[in-house]
């Protein structure tokens, strides 16, 4: 996500390192580099101009004198300006005070609207809401069915016109859906509307008719972040034609000049509220301008990581493992496996690592990280007997051969895992015992 932009900005900051004071020429050169980086990332020209002017002015100003060195100051300024163009504060969903909250989705065909409807429904379910999806896209042949499939995947019911009812009237469907939601006590109604390949008047009118008929609490414009400047143009056209309260960016997992998406909030004056970055139903979250800026500047996104950890970690399980370790100073391959499975729940390894600060430089390795490696380790451990997991010392040559066969791996893989385990254990022991690993403070108590 925005990898090229990240790299370019990192290079720019590198040039400032070690400078005691920024000369006018330094600031000009930096501004020029930032300008190129943003333009290359496809950020819209007016946004780039404003951005660079602000950075320049602030870098020249008195700000550059505090506790930070000039390079750090520039990073700080760029960070804050990025947050500003991304919309500033996180904009949260507004729920209706009475009756069901109505959310209407609008956007071009292929923007990822139908997928997004289901992702949003799942996200709402996680917030203890009881959403219902509404298939008001009656134009595309498979749209209703596709929404039903997606709804099923996330366990959310879909309200759709009965099959065989002709073309159907999307406005009527949307209206009926809200009555249905009231009767069946669903508290959020997500209306998926028709998209076209291009913007046309009829499409706009249909969306506007639905909007007028149901008076949604939120109209969200869904846009594919990978279509470059067209995203900005389409956003503007929909704003004039239908109007909306917030933007949802999809396909942020592709890097292809996603910078256009960075311009949308600035150009339309509407906040980006959600972002979708992958094909999995859980690849979706609120959009936080500050966290996105941090990610772009490779300052990490610890907050998201922590939130995900809180969501998926089995606290009792973790505490038990920690207590056992503290008490006995020992841990077994079973504990090792459990910890690994907990981490696994957070998502792919490259995704987790990517959220840590300073990982930008390892991007290539991360992208090439073979996620199946963890499955392989798991398979090896699961091919061991309980006694072996409890006390790996007993794993001799013939046991290793048996484990390798059982897990479909090579004996060398088993050796490597067992070696690694003993290494890790030795390290834990010396930390617990206060013996101290070189360069690492001992844990007190
Ligand atoms: P709609 O026409 O707007 O309803 O779009 P769909 O929901 O059918 O999505 C179009 C295509 O984009 C599908 O193949 C989706 O799997 C894919 N897609 C949707 N969201 C994402 C995303 O965040 N990342 C990626 N990589 N693909 C996505």
UniProtKB/TrEMBL annotation:
GTP binds at residues 107-114, 192-196, 250-253. GO terms for molecular function: 7S RNA binding; GTP binding; GTPase activity. PROSITE patterns: SRP54 (PS00300). Gene3D superfamilies: P-loop containing nucleotide triphosphate hydrolases, Signal recognition particle SRP54, nucleotide-binding domain, Signal recognition particle, SRP54 subunit, M-domain. It comes from the Bacteria. It is an enzyme of class 3 (hydrolase). It catalyses: GTP + H2O = GDP + phosphate + H(+). GO terms for biological process: SRP-dependent cotranslational protein targeting to membrane. CDD domains: SRP_G (cd18539). SMART domains: AAA, SRP54, SRP54_N. It is found in: Cytoplasm. One of its GO terms (cellular component) is signal recognition particle. Its EC number is 3.6.5.4. Keywords: Cytoplasm, GTP-binding, Hydrolase, Nucleotide-binding, Ribonucleoprotein, RNA-binding, Signal recognition particle. Residues 271-284 form the SRP54-type proteins GTP-binding domain. SUPFAM superfamilies: P-loop containing nucleoside triphosphate hydrolases, Signal peptide-binding domain. Part of the signal recognition particle protein translocation system, which is composed of SRP and FtsY. Involved in targeting and insertion of nascent membrane proteins into the cytoplasmic membrane. Binds to the hydrophobic signal sequence of the ribosome-nascent chain (RNC) as it emerges from the ribosomes. The SRP-RNC complex is then targeted to the cytoplasmic membrane where it interacts with the SRP receptor FtsY. Composed of three domains: the N-terminal N domain, which is responsible for interactions with the ribosome, the central G domain, which binds GTP, and the C-terminal M domain, which binds the RNA and the signal sequence of the RNC. This is Signal recognition particle protein. It comes from Nocardioides currus. The gene is ffh.
């Amino acid at each position: 996500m925005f990898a090229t932009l990240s790299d370019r900005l990192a290079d720019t900051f590198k040039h400032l390192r070690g400078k005691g004071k920024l000369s006018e020429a330094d600031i000009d050169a930096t501004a020029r580099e930032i300008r190129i980086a943003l333009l290359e990332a496809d950020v819209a020209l007016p946004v780039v101009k404003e951005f660079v002017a602000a950075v320049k002015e602030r870098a020249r100003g008195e700000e550059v004198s505090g506790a930070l060195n000039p390079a750090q100051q520039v990073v700080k300024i760029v960070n804050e300006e990025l947050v500003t163009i991304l919309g500033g504060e996180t904009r949260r969903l507004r729920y209706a005070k009475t009756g069901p909250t109505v959310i209407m989705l609008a956007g071009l065909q292929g923007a990822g609207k139908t997928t997004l409807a289901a992702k949003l429904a799942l996200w709402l379910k996680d917030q203890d809401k009881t959403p219902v999806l509404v298939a008001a896209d009656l134009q595309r042949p498979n749209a209703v069915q596709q929404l039903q499939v997606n709804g099923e995947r996330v366990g959310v019911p879909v309200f759709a016109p009965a099959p065989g009812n002709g073309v159907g009237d999307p406005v009527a469907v949307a209206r009926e859906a809200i009555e249905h939601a009231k009767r069946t006590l669903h508290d959020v109604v997500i209306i998926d509307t028709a998209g076209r390949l291009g913007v046309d008047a009829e499409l706009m009118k249909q969306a506007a008719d639905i909007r007028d008929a149901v008076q949604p609490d939120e109209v969200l414009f869904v846009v594919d972040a990978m279509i470059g400047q067209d995203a900005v143009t389409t956003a503007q056209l929909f704003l004039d034609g239908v109007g909306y309260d917030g933007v949802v960016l999809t396909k942020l997992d592709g890097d292809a000049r996603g910078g256009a998406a960075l311009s949308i909030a600035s150009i339309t004056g509407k906040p980006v509220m959600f972002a979708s970055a992958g094909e999995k139903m859980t690849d979706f979250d609120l959009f936080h301008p500050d966290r996105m800026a941090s990610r772009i500047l490779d300052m990490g996104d610890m907050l998201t990581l922590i939130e995900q950890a809180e969501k998926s970690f089995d606290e009792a399980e973790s505490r038990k493992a920690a207590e056992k370790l503290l008490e006995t100073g020992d841990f077994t391959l079973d504990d090792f496996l459990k910890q690994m499975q907990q981490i696994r729940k957070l998502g792919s390894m490259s995704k987790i690592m990517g959220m840590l600060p300073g990982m930008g430089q390892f991007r290539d390795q991360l992208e090439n990280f073979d996620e199946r490696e963890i499955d392989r380790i798991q398979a090896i451990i699961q091919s061991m007997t309980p006694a072996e997991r409890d006390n790996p010392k007993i794993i001799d040559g013939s046991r290793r051969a048996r484990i390798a066969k059982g897990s479909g791996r090579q004996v060398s893989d088993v050796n490597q895992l067992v070696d690694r385990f003993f290494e890790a254990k030795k390290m834990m022991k010396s930390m617990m015992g206060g013996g101290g690993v070189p360069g690492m403070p001992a844990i007190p108590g």
